Predict the structure.
Amino acid sequence: MTTLVMKFGGASLGTSAGLAQVLGIIASESQYWAQLVIVVSALDGVTDMLLEAAQLARIDNRRGYRRIAANLRSRHLALIDQLPLDRPDRNTLQADIDRLLSSLLDDCQTIANNLHEELSAMHIDAVVAVGERLSARIIAALLRQNGIRGVAVDGAEVLVTDDVHGNANPFFAPTSQKVNDALAPMLQRDMIPVVTGYIGATAAGATTTLGRGGTDYTASVISSVLGADELWIWTDVDGMMTADPRVERDARVIPRLSYVEAADLAYFGARILHARMIAPLTEAKLPLRVKNVFSPEQAGTLVSADPGGRQAAIKAVTAIQALALRRPASGSMAGVTRLVGNTLFRTLGMRSEVLIASQSSSSSFLCFVIPTSHGMEGLEHLQRALGEKMAEYPEKMPWTIDSVALVTAIGANLQRAPQLLSRVLAGLGDIEIYGMALGASNCSVSVAMARKDAAKAVAGIHDLILRSGSDSA
Ligand code: ASP
Ligand code: MG
């Protein structure tokens, strides 16, 4: 029994043209695979709007969040207006949309009335989850209308997570049980479950979300607990690229990556994949393909245990924001690492990770990576929180906090190939380097520098990748 899980992101779902592609892809793959499971994100931009609504609720701006709810209503209704749905399906969908948006208003109201942080975090997740709940229903209806038995499934009913609201982690054993209990009977009856990505629930039933871009993670968890044969992530670019194509215009698709390379690429800033999604696939040895909905005939990127190609290569370069702590004189880093660790965990719900630490007789330097899923606000938020904490103990904490850029070169066995490492360094030219770290995976090298130097560093390393040609051949 062959099973394929396919995830569709917001960019492909937002327009009727995108939806037509999605429908065509599902219809054609359903001919080849015995079982199909679809996982969907909210429509493009919807999660941002929902987060904004929740923030407006926190400051009790009722007009603000009501305006957003009204916008969301007209946007989703306009979309279903363009779809070829019959009257009963259209009416049910409209009723669903209204019900979901009214629960959103209730949650916003609760947030507005309640200043308690923990409770608000719970209601914020309930607000944000509405985006995927809306889109899964729309896709399922569209499939049914085209003779495919699509059924919307709520991720909160199958993904059991911890209670880190906004960045929750699934528990695999209970999730496996629930996913199999809910989906197996549907699959046996030739139905296609359309699961909401990004959302889960605690054992007590409170809705949680898995962090921005979390639909990828849902898709990877579901495919691994179902024992699927492959996972395909459909997006609006041709695959995983040698650099961010918005910055490096000549960026190319990378045909093959190993799991570790893909994980490093995601972790160090390729926004295309959620960083935590690779681990479940690695264990299950489940191949992942990243493909473009707008040109499905292209192979895209294949991620598997085998990196393909040469023994050692530079395949991609990324740049992300990081937070650096510097202290003019050297001194113990233990205390400050713990302090930052606690603050990171509390403010962003992420475990601390010192990426680069260096100590000389004249100074100490620590660099922490902030996942792109936390956005620019994440960085500013954390910087402020840390500043306040340090101000409490000025004598013990004479550290300065800076935001820096972390430029990373990624490729199989990079660290075992001294000639490649020296080419990476040469690619940096005369840029001042604050520190350098080799990733635990043996396939990444990260360099911390001033933010103003990042673009030049990325261009320099990307040039090397293109010139060597080996890596993308
Ligand atoms: N809609 C969510 C987000 O924007 C999850 C996702 O798109 O994967 O982060
Ligand atoms: Mg994404």
Notes: The chain has a mean pLDDT of 90. The radius of gyration is 23 Å. The chain has two domains: 3-236, 314-472. Residues 9-10, 41-42, 47, 131, 197-198, 212-216 surround aspartic acid (ligand 1) (CB under 6 Å).
